Amino acid sequence: MSALAWSLAIAAGLTLSASLWWFWLSFRAALGADLSAGDEGDAAMRSAASLRRRELEGERDALVRSLRDLELDYETGKLSESDFESLRESLRGRARQVLRALDEDLAPYRQRIEELLQAKGNDASSS
Amino acid sequence: MDIPALGNLVLCLSLIAAAYACSTALVAGRSGTQRWLFSARYGTYATCALITVAVLLLAYAFQTHDFRIRYVARYSDRSMGWAYLLTSLWGGQDGSMLWWSFLLCGYTAAVTFSFGRRYVELQPYVLFTLMSILIFFIVVMLFAANPFALMLADTPQDGEGLNPLLQNYWMTIHPPSLYLGFVGWSVPFAFGIAALITGRLDEEWLLAARKWALLAWLFLSIGLLLGMLWSYEELGWGGYWAWDPVENASFHPWLVGTAYLHSVMVQERYRMLKTWNIALLCLTFFMTIFGTFLTRSGLIASVHSFARSDIGIFFVWYLVFLAAACIGLIVWRLPKLRAVHRIEALMSREFAFLLNNWILLGMMVFVLIATTFPLLSEWLRGEQVTVGPSFYNRWMVPFALVLLFLMGVGPLMAWRRATGKKLTRALRAPMLSAGIVGLLHLLIGPRLGFPALIAGDALYATATGQVLDLFTRAAPLISTTCCAAVLGTIVQEFWRGMAARMRSQKESPGLALMRLVGRAKRRYGGYTVHAGITLMYLGFTGAAYDVEKEAALSPGEMMRIEGYRIRYEKPRMEVDPNKRMVFTDLTVMNDQGRVLGQVSPAKFIYRTHPQMPTTEVAKRVSSIEDLYVIMSTVDPQTKRATFRVIVRPLVVWIWIGGLVLILGAFIAMSPSVRELLGESAFAPMPMRASPVSMIWPLLLLLCGAAWLSPQPLSAQSDSSSSLHAGTVVMHNADERRLFSRLLCQCGECARLPMDGCGCNWATQKREKIRAEMAAGRSVDDIIASYREEFGPKAIAVPSDRGLDRALWAIPVAGTLLAALALIMLGRRWARRSAKSQGEPALMSQESAIEASPDERQRYDALLDDELSKFEGGDK
Questions:
Q1: What are phi and psi of B613, to 5 degrees?
Q2: CA–CA gap between residue B420 and residue B244 (Å, rounded)
Q3: Which of B25, B28, B390, B874 is 20–30 Å from B617 (CA)?
Q4: CB of B768 within 8 Å of any CB in chain A?
Q5: What is the spatial distance between Cα B458 and Cα B453, in angstroms, rounded to a whole number?
Q6: Could you tell me the end-to-end alpha-carbon distance of chain B, in angstroms, rounded to an integer?
Q7: pTM of the model
Q8: Inter-chain CB proximity A100 and B851 less than 8 Å
Q9: Where are the domains of chain A?
Q10: Of the candidates A18, A73, A99, which has its C-beta nearest B414's C-beta?
Q11: Which of B84, B269, B344 to mutate to test the interface with A (most CBs of A within 10 A)?
Q12: What ipTM score was computed for the predicted complex, to two decimals?
């Protein structure tokens, strides 16, 4: 038997072992053992981000992409200055609104962090 | 080791494992719990590993000549080297099913690895879809195409050997690449299905699927190019594309996939065409399965007939299931797929993309109808017909030129709306270059042997035939003019972008070019792809100027063709353990007698397939033309040999264009600096796991396959039509027209036109027909007699009456009607957009309260920050 055939046989054996190992991990995970993320992961999975927030992020990205294209089109002479300015301003106006909405969406989290930091600061000063 | 039993066991385990991974993914999706998702991911890895074990076991069986396995006995023999023994894995149907599954597992493992904590809601359904595709292929293997099935008879001492067609360099890397392209579309398809199931139809899935789609498109393009190269180098009939059903099968997903890559950009920016894009993606995947079905079922007679088998029914049911599932899901999600924004003007980049989609799909429908027409004809009226290359070559020219024209104009349009004045200014340089090239072609072309208008012949003796003929005659001029316009557009786009940077940023030209491309890689990568395709068009145009000649020469004798003198020196024979090789050495000189080089066309006779002597083409390549030499016969006693020599202008530009296309695709999908550093604020996709990083192992796989091939360029043919190719000469235009319409009816040369078939039957029939022509019979009269004698299936171009007319009338009428509908729809959208006041709502109905000056300043700064992140991010 050639060296290549030996190599293939050994590789098959190793891959089979890897497959069994992954099965073991899969069963363990299904049974709830050995999870690093735990319940937080579940929560993250159920609502990775609020639908509204994701919508806003999607719109922000689309607007930024459109703005960039607009600038490229203007730089390469496909748009007149007046068209460019009016389209740009309308896109930027909408983008500002979206960024503001995103900002508002984050406000409760920001407030919570500030409260936690303040609480931590109070603990540190009292001890 | 009992490899057959072990192999079967591993396949059975793979099926169970895939079903397990599929189920856990479904549970993960339904329950939204991470432990099930982890379980599904590990289960997916385990399944992929099992399929890999099956591949390794089959490779082991080939290396150890385990002829108990039917597949090993049929596709290998003891004389084959280790490298071809490895490539035999995908040499036949059963192995190629396993190979398909293996590549799918490669993609699946890479996608799973790349997920990390992203797309948590899409992940389960992506895995579910990919595993369900894998289940289908494992079922096909277990029940209809088992690569580990045992020989029914006694174990043979030696195998039958790999089909000589597959024992060459290009066929070593062509199938893996094509399959990488086919299988690759499974990943974006899985993302699309996951988005439909979860209802998360925002842009998240599009962004996740984008580079996977580009990767699949790139491999499909490389696969098609390699297939053309193989056909040109190896089959010895002088062409690179024969419109064989199997070739068409790989062309369909390429056309739809190209349409998708364009229209998806509109959705990314303006959140429109959502239904259209998901439908295109589903159709692309559907066509890859349909292509595999055509390739492997042997449904339609073709030169790839070595893959006939009984797996067809499995594919038919799977295709029905796929269509029903995709349509059902799309209809279910229609309310969520509604566009937020509409096209504002007909003169806009968005509408140009729609027109691009229109022509690409028109081409796809045309080729699809023509490919399946023989089946439809037999089914509807019980009459067998054949649709030969002449039909495609003539009808596809108008489609292709419209596409070329759109490639020139589209990039000049601005997004949203282009003004007439600006567009006219942008058109100046492309039109100027087109005008100059067109004029030069008209004035100087004839002197150089490239007349702008060529002689043609009508495909039909009807008005349609006349119109088509007029178009065909002018096609070279239209093509070169459009090519010049497209290249002019591309150069202008690069130059304008560079000039703007050089002005505003005070950058050097080199730096400006680099930063320009880096800033908008998809745009400029796309332009580079356009440049590559334009160069390929130039190469295709060269086919209008082919010159060919046949001569029987004794050693020392000489023939002349198009400024070349070719002297036949001597024949020689070489032998290796696998085959005998008969070479004929020829010296190529120019008209002045200066030696340009040596060429040695050959015939190979394989030990295991002595009945399949094969033809090795010899070529002399230059940027202007290829000298393509085929040795048809050689007499061992007199050493007299027959040669067919073709001078093919501009062919090399097809391959150069292909390389440019690949470069463009690389630019478009290359990672940004941010991605390389793994810290993209937009799409945190670490390089280790991005689709771009996938390309290196996959390319290495291809290169490895190429390296495995121990010998370069051994042209072969098999018992199918290609065996008889390359031995025929046409003496005049009437003969060319006549014999290109008649198909060989010897029983073995399905679909091969008589102008390329060199079998005994065809040779004798040709002589008989030539005698009739000499006696004054007209071409049309002879075609009519031939049709009467052998039936409509013996004619390469169906008639232009009755149901036959539907072959071109339905797709052409459909395409024209679609164009009309598109323009009407576009105008309606534009009118509505003009009526709506102010900025069209791009998105959800957010509060429209204008910010205070302070807030405005703050959000402007935030926006500028977001924009700067796009520099190099190419989101």
A1: -60, 135
A2: 44
A3: B390
A4: no
A5: 15
A6: 52
A7: 0.86
A8: yes
A9: 3-126
A10: A73
A11: B269
A12: 0.78
